[in-house]
Design goal:
The chain is globular. Helix content is about 40%, strand content about 15%. The chain is built from twelve helices and twelve strands.
């Protein structure tokens, strides 16, 4: 099978590419624009595999997409390319509208035209898998409420609004044009190769440097945490066995308040890296409460029973096991995150060129 993965140099996308290349015989073409969060160093362990190819392409470039589809002849598209940081969307929403909405539209149109020209047998095999977020649902009020696949959309930020828009486009292309699509909405991911601006890697790296550990508001915002390698397995499962036209929520069954996550990381660092920066007695002393972000959702929690009951997927990592693996990975891979922090990573600056098709 030939698979196009958009955004395959990003955090979740690179996990998906690594999973497919290491566990299947499928061919993967990774399409990524290599913006600030796209890092080809996250794919070093598979970059020389004969089944892996990379193209530096913007998903808003329909001509480039058309060429790639015609040359590669994909059986499956896994669409992960997106701007994804809430704070960045508040400061500059334009990039989120362009990539998440216009980019998804361009990809859908190129996919539709390509799919329409296939023979009947290849048409039946083709799928378009759109990867989205639980943030499209807004936040939950009750302590026992869960997001289901039927929860009404109520996005709170420019980021989540742009992802909600892309979800609606995918459903419309399925209903109007019969394009064979599936959608997944996931909870907060964490794990190896996580870009340092997000809560968990930021906490780890700031603690190692003796810098403040910023926590929004009172830190009681609750998230359902999903280990990224569990998520990659789920995405491949849905892409290959999910029912056309359906949506599947993917969660880790790990609800934690942000302040609890930060304290757990501090406890792990006390055990795994007891040598602290000068003047620091306890990592937890670095916790600093900062002004809450505008429109901050209080609680997300996923009901992932549908994907478990219908497709047989469930997470293998608890939060306790996953966060330990994550902290250990960052401790063992300083070269990766130091290059991200100093800006010396990324495709062109590394002299990495497209392999071509």
């Amino acid at each position: 099978m030939k698979i196009i993965v958009t955004g395959g140099a990003g955090f979740i996308g690179s996990a998906v590419v690594r999973h497919i290349i290491k566990n299947t015989e499928n061919q993967v073409l990774n399409i990524d624009k290599l913006t600030y969060a796209g890092n080809l160093e996250s794919l070093e362990e598979v970059e020389n595999n004969e089944n892996y190819t990379f193209e530096k392409v913007d998903i808003c470039d329909s001509d480039a997409l058309t060429r790639i589809f015609n040359e590669f002849q994909p059986d499956l598209v896994m669409h992960l390319a997106a701007e994804s940081h809430v704070d960045r969307s508040i400061d500059g929403p334009g990039d989120f509208i362009q990539t998440n909405i216009i980019g998804t539209y361009q990809l859908l149109e190129v996919s539709r035209k390509y799919w329409s020209g296939l023979n009947d047998n290849k048409k039946l095999k083709f799928r378009f898998h759109h990867i989205s977020t639980d943030e499209v649902y807004g936040d939950l009020e009750g302590e026992d409420d869960l997001f289901t696949e039927n929860t009404p959309y109520a996005p709170s930020s420019p980021y989540s609004a742009s992802k909600a828009s892309s979800d609606h486009l995918v459903r419309a292309w399925n209903r109007t044009y019969n394009l064979p699509t599936v959608i997944t909405n996931c909870s907060n991911n964490y794990g190896p190769y996580h870009f340092p601006e997000k809560l968990i890697p930021l906490t780890i790296l700031n603690a190692l440097k003796g810098k403040p550990l910023p926590v929004y508001g009172n830190g009681m915002q609750i998230r359902d945490w999903l280990y990224v390698e569990d998520h990659a397995r789920a995405l491949y499962c849905v892409a290959t066995t999910g029912v056309i036209g359906e949506t599947y929520n993917i969660g880790g069954h790990n609800e934690k308040a942000n302040i609890s996550v930060v304290k757990m990381i501090c406890e792990l660092l006390e055990e795994l890296r007891p040598e602290k920066p000068e003047g620091i007695e306890k990592y937890e002393d670095l916790i600093t409460f900062v002004q809450d972000r505008p429109g901050h959702d209080v609680r997300y929690a996923i009901d992932a029973s549908k994907i478990e009951q219908e497709l047989g997927w469930k997470p293998t990592e608890t939060f306790e096991s996953g966060i330990r693996k994550t902290v250990q990975w960052f401790l063992q891979n300083p070269t990766w995150w130091q290059r991200v922090l100093d800006g010396s990573y990324a495709g062109e600056r590394l002299g990495i060129k497209n392999k071509g098709l």
